[in-house]
Amino acid sequence: MNYESIVAFHGHSCPGLAIGYRMSLAALEALHSQRAADEELVAIVENDACGVDALQCLTGCTFGKGNLIFHDYGKQVYTLFSRTSGSGVRVLYHGDGLPAELRNDRPARIEKILTTADDKILTVTPVSVPLPEPAEILASHPCEQCKEQVMASRLQKENGRQFCIPCLKQR
């Protein structure tokens, strides 16, 4: 998948998307892996910025499949694991190789992010941490207040009754 395809999915080209594109490609290369069809890869992202869209497109890791985990740390860091090989890699965008004068020239900055050598803007480090379990599909049950279906693991109990989180917060 090329950068233009990622832009089409995301809706616009921006430095954040270019960063996520480069980080994701570097992670896949380091893992000797391709896009996951199912849960072969697991990604942990440390921000919720534009680049995560590139990661989803390139790696196949998504919230819906349960193989995309979000930690709200505000860092340009992605950690990817291969369930197939058991290996993992942490990719940090540091951008040290980008000239400061590009900060205010968005198109030039994007182009530089897309073309600068990995080792000038990224740090790629092998990691080993326990993999999360594959996503579990759980039954849904109705909230006793709003009657909407809720995944069993998200139902909250109060006085022997089961509520969805929003309804429990209203009580």
Topology, pairings included?
Blueprint: H1 3-10, H2 15-31, E1 41-45, H3 51-59, E2 68-70, E3 77-82, E4 88-93, H4 106-115, H5 118-121, E5 122-127, E6 140-142, E7 149-151, E8 156-158, E9 161-163, H6 165-170
Parallel strand pairs: 1-2
Antiparallel strand pairs: 1-3, 3-4, 4-5, 6-7, 8-9
Structure, described:
The protein has six helices and nine strands. The longest helix is centred in the first third of the chain and has 17 residues, at 15-31. It has two domains: 3-127, 2-Layer Sandwich (60s Ribosomal Protein L30, Chain: A); 140-170, no CATH class. The mean pLDDT is 94. The strands form three sheets. A five-stranded mixed beta sheet has the order 2-1-3-4-5. Strands 6-7 form a two-stranded antiparallel sheet. It has helices spanning 3-10, 15-31, 51-59, 106-115, 118-121, 165-170, and strands spanning 41-45, 68-70, 77-82, 88-93, 122-127, 140-142, 149-151, 156-158, 161-163. The chain is of the alpha+beta class and 171 residues long. Helices cover 32% and strands 22% of the residues.
Throw out a few tags for this protein.
6 helices; 22% strand; two-stranded antiparallel sheet; 5-stranded mixed β-sheet; 32% helix; alpha+beta; 171 residues; 60s Ribosomal Protein L30, Chain: A; 2 domains
